[in-house]
Amino acid sequence: MITEVVSGLNSPRSIIVGPDGNFWFNPAFEAELGRLTPAGDLTFFPIPSWAENIARGHDNTILFTEFGDNKIGEFTTDGVITESNEFRFSQPTGITAGRGRSVWFLGYGNDKVYRTAFPR
């Protein structure tokens, strides 16, 4: 049995269970992340540009790639955003948290794999 929980979303791309136990997703071409509680409450949080992919990060964070702005970002469930402003990547796509505080992601525009870490 399949149950429709929410409708009318703008082409959602990825969904994860966040560190807070809520479901997080990224609408296509929208500069926001969506949070859906298990009870069905929906809230949107602004981010600097649209997220191509999202993943659960370290320390209650959600990682996201900014394909159009050539950056990656980290979003806390409290709404604090950190971006990779020190350099730009070539159309970052897939992203995941690695060991320690490392973050791994793909460069779609130049066929590379990158590793970095967000400062704490």
Give a verbal description of the structure.
- The protein is an all-beta fold and 120 residues long.
- It has a single domain (12-117), classed as 7 Propeller (Methylamine Dehydrogenase, Chain H), CATH 2.130.10.10.
- The protein has strands at 12-17, 23-27, 32-36, 42-46, 54-56, 61-66, 71-76, 81-83, 92-97, 102-107, 112-117.
- A hairpin with a 4-residue loop joins strand 7 and strand 8.
- It is globular, with a radius of gyration of 14 Å.
Summarize the structure.
The chain is mostly beta strands. The protein contains no helices and 11 strands.
Biggest sheet features? 4 strands, antiparallel
Uncertain segments are none
- First and last CA, distance: 44 Å
Enumerate how many helices there are, as a single number: 0
According to CATH, the fold-level topology is: Methylamine Dehydrogenase, Chain H
- Architecture per CATH nomenclature, i.e. the level-2 architecture: 7 Propeller
Structural class: mainly beta
Provide the succession of SSEs: EEEEEEEEEEE
Mean pLDDT figure: 89
Q: What level of helicity do the residues show?
A: under 10%
How large is the share of residues in beta strands?
over 45%
* Domain module count: 1
Outline type: globular
Please give the radius of gyration in angstroms: 14 Å
Text of the CATH class = Mainly Beta
Counted beta strands? 11
